[in-house]
Write a structure and sequence with these properties.
Blueprint lengths: L14 E5 L2 E7 L2 E4 L10 E9 L3 E7 L7 E11 L6 E5 L9 E10 L3 E10 L2 E2 L5 E2 L7 E8 L6 E10 L4 E9 L8 E19 L1
Antiparallel strand pairs: 1-2, 2-3, 4-15, 5-15, 6-12, 6-15, 7-10, 7-15, 8-9, 8-14, 11-13, 12-13, 13-14
Amino acid sequence: VIGDLDGTSTMASTVLIGAGTTERLKINSTGLYVNGSSTALGGNWSLISTTNITSAITSLLMSGDYSAYSQLRIIITNLTGSANGEPRLNMSNDNGTTIATWDNTSAIVYNDTAKKGSATAWGTTYAYFLDSTFRITTAGDAATVVLDIYTDGGDISMVGRADGQDTGGDHCFCMSKGIGSNQTSTNYINITNMNWSTGKVRLFGFA
């Protein structure tokens, strides 16, 4: 502890710097804080939430105040399910009352030789990020998915990539997008229309 700050028994493995009695800098096992904020420095990714999937689910909701972030990233690892399907990303800026309508969205699967399949739509209240030809039903072929959601003041946009197997068992990847959401912020992200069994879903924010 540097400065005129009171240490406590809960501050093990903590560096604390103050200007007199005012805390200015703190470093502990959860991160770096400037003037009490973990995002004050900018340019940092912060882990917002983690969801471990251990049994069958058909939807997954993430909600909260994301106004401090210009970009959100969803990373899904070790994903398997009972059916391939076409998962959908639903977003809202008023806790789910008004769902964003996307100008257009697509998810296109390519294997090691050619295009395998696609899901496309215009003017929907969801954005695709996987097509049904992208296989998640084999435990040994667990998939990885990364979705980037840009909330920088204009209409929200989404781009994604998934790596795994196609329905024929070939190496493949899926590219996805959602543009023109007609909303500029979000506090509600709901993944629907899926049959997932295992995986880890992490939400990050970039300030």
